[in-house]
Amino acid sequence: MLPITVCMIAKNEDIHIEECLKRLRPCKFEIVVVDTGSVDRTIETAKKYTDKVYNFSWCDDFSAARNFSISQASNDWVLVIDCDEYLENINLADIDDLLSNNQDSVGMIIRNNPYIIQGVRSIMTERIGRLFNRNYCHYEGSIHEQVTTLDGKEPKTFPIPLTFYHEGYVSESGKRMRATRNLEMLLHDLGMKGDNPYIYFQLGQNYISLNDSEKAAHYFKQGLDLNADPNSAFVQSMTESYGYCLVELAKYDEALTLRDKYDLFSGHADFLYLMGIVYMKNNMLEQAIEEFTKATTMLTCSRTGVNSYRAYFNIASIYELLGQKEEAKEYYKKCGDYNNAAKRLEELG
To answer: Is the pLDDT of residue 170 over 60?
Structure first.
């Protein structure tokens, strides 16, 4: 049994918490569940899996609730997850080895997030800091809280072999409800802290959930103008989200300004794919093909298919537009079982 306590906060999570805790059970972790005011069966369900279930009076501060949950752990090492995150893969032996060598660092789990693109359900993969020693780290920020060191320094990180699937708010109404709730808290944080790239990033993400690309792009640009550390995962994500917002808004000329970020992010398939889209929209077709081709040379990506079938599909579409039917067919074939490509091949004969 690893000296790790899983810490969770919950409110009306009856539809998620059972699956979450059921998947954790084989790991034999200590589990702490802090409830912030549920009126459904969340508490009753949690007590089936752990006797460490506590109540916390909600105070509009996620970090306060997180830190309270951490304080109830018997172990110094804590793994913080949400009720809608379901364990997929774990290597307990490797994690055990990593703990002894990274006492003051934050372990980065893998989280797979479903999303819809061009009507197709896909997965976006990210690494986020969730495993840490409470003698060195805690949470800060009333909303979209972040793990920070107790001494205020930038935390060191290390990857851990631990993967969760993020079920999330699958309904549109659920997304909008959460975004509306979060907006007031984020704006309050911004007023208290002043210009902050991470808050601007979260505001942009929030407006995406509200289907307001105009406001999302505004806040993403505000965040990028602050020149935050490009090595931070959220900065790369903010750059790409900003680009997609500009494309959505048909601000194709403005999207070309992302070329200024090329040297920073061209080692990532997701950014190369985005630039391919931007060039396509600006009718710079040779440049688009070049970027999509570069994307296919990358081994990893966050958004499913941007380094494979999606990039090939766009290359094929460009060749078809140029009247180069055989080249188009060649690239559609590279898309494998991607339905959109199969349809085009059938129509091309």
So the answer is: no
Alpha-carbon span 73 to 52, nearest angstrom: 9
Average pLDDT, stretch 14-37? 96
Closest by alpha carbon to 215, among 200, 233, 194, 193? 200
Q: Please give the Cα distance from 129 to 105 (Å, whole number).
A: 10
pLDDT of 227 reads 87
- How far from 280 is each of 75, 167, 272, 283, 327, CA to CA, in Å? 53, 33, 12, 5, 17
- What are the φ/ψ torsions at residue 122 (nearest 5 degrees)? -130, 180
Are 27 and 92 found together in one domain?
yes
Count of domains forming the chain = 2
Choosing from 105, 136, 166, the residue where a domain stops is: 166
Q: What is the DSSP letter of 37?
A: S
What CA–CA distance (Å, rounded) separates 61 from 343? 50
The confidence band for 120, taking pLDDT boundaries of 50, 70 and 90, is low
SS3 85: strand
Q: How far is CA 307 from CA 34, 43, 96, in A?
A: 40, 43, 33
Report the predicted TM-score, pTM, of the whole model to 2 decimal places.
0.79
Nearest in space to 238 (alpha carbons), one of 200, 268, 264: 200
Residues 105-110 have a mean pLDDT of: 96
Which residues are within 8 A (CB) of 11 and not within 5 positions of it... i.e. 6 or more apart?
35, 36, 37, 38, 42, 58
Number of H helices, E strands in the chain: 15, 10
Q: What percent of the chain has pLDDT over 70?
A: 96
What are the residues whose beta carbons fall under 8 Å from the beta carbon of 296, sequence distance 6 or more? 269, 307, 308, 311, 312
pLDDT score of 92 more than 80? yes
**Residue 155's domain spans which residues?**
4-166
3-state SS assignment for residue 72: coil
User: Which CATH number characterizes residue 106's domain?
Assistant: 3.90.550.10
- Give the end of a domain, one of 138, 166, 194: 166
